[in-house]
Amino acid sequence: MEEKIIVPDSIMPIIAWRFWRITECFEFNKKEIFKLMSAISHCLWPEKEKLVSKCHCRDEENKPYYHETCLTDSSCGIHAYKSLDNLFDDRKLIKNYGALFGKVYLWGKIQCHEFGYRAQFAYPQLILGAICEECKSIISLDSAVFIEGGGGQTLNGFLRYEIFCERCACNARMKRKDMIFNKSIYGRKVSEVLKNRYNIEIKDFIIQKRG
């Protein structure tokens, strides 16, 4: 049976690993803004303030409700992995659009699992790299190519971007007619925006050979 341990109101943050996507929205002055979005739940991460977990439980009439034990009795909480190996083992979950990966601070009430955590509060610490949507290779953020989602589609009102390595970005434009005229943005620009907006580190991930 999976071990579950609740850490009551952790003051010192736990550092864990997780995936993000990139989305784009516009301020009133029409300036484009790139933001981090959860890879699975499509939750936007606020800049320079903590992300607070929301309860997604529903009653018998399918109405949302909150309960004090949601971290222990449900799958609610901000999810993250204990190690980089655990994160990479779950790359199959990133089926579309690719992803960024890096470290995240977790604190508040924290539920411990075998391979990860669910937390009450979180904030990104650093971005180490990206995963190409097509070939699933690990690439640096600066070398990644971000292309508007097919047909310029939006997700929950925000413009979504697919992440490619340079080779797969060229192949995608040749194979997919819906991408021919879509905007491309190189990772260097995204890197600078995220660094300034979230006040986080951006580092190049070095792939180490495992013995």
Gist of the model:
The protein has 211 residues and is of the alpha+beta class. The chain contains four helices and twelve strands; from the N terminus they run E-E-E-H-E-H-E-E-E-E-E-E-H-E-H-E. It has helices at residues 70-73, 84-89, 166-175, 187-198, and strands spanning 5-26, 32-38, 51-52, 78-81, 99-112, 116-131, 138-139, 145-148, 154-155, 158-164, 184-186, 201-202.
Q: Please, what is the average pLDDT? A: 78
What share of residues is helical?
10-25%
- Beta-strand content bin: 35-45%
Low-confidence stretches: 1-8
Q: Give the structural class.
A: alpha+beta
Number of helices: 4
Q: Rounded to an integer, what's the Rg over CA atoms?
A: 18 Å
How far apart lie the N and C ends?
A: 31 Å
| Major sheet | 12 strands, mixed
How would you sum up the global shape? Answer: globular
- Topology as a string of helices (H) and strands (E): EEEHEHEEEEEEHEHE
Count of spatially separate domains: 1
Oligomeric state as shown: single chain
Question: How many beta-strand segments?
Answer: 12
Give the helices and strands, then pairings:
Elements: E1 5-26, E2 32-38, E3 51-52, H1 70-73, E4 78-81, H2 84-89, E5 99-112, E6 116-131, E7 138-139, E8 145-148, E9 154-155, E10 158-164, H3 166-175, E11 184-186, H4 187-198, E12 201-202
Can you put this structure into words, describing what you see?
With 211 residues, the chain is of the alpha+beta class. It has one domain (5-202). The protein contains four helices and twelve strands, in the order E-E-E-H-E-H-E-E-E-E-E-E-H-E-H-E. The protein has helices at residues 70-73, 84-89, 166-175, 187-198, and strands at 5-26, 32-38, 51-52, 78-81, 99-112, 116-131, 138-139, 145-148, 154-155, 158-164, 184-186, 201-202. Strands 1, 2, 3, 4, 5, 6, 7, 8, 9, 10, 11 and 12 form a twelve-stranded mixed β-sheet that branches. A hairpin with a 3-residue loop joins strand 5 (99-112) and strand 6 (116-131). It starts with a strand and ends in a 9-residue tail after the last strand.
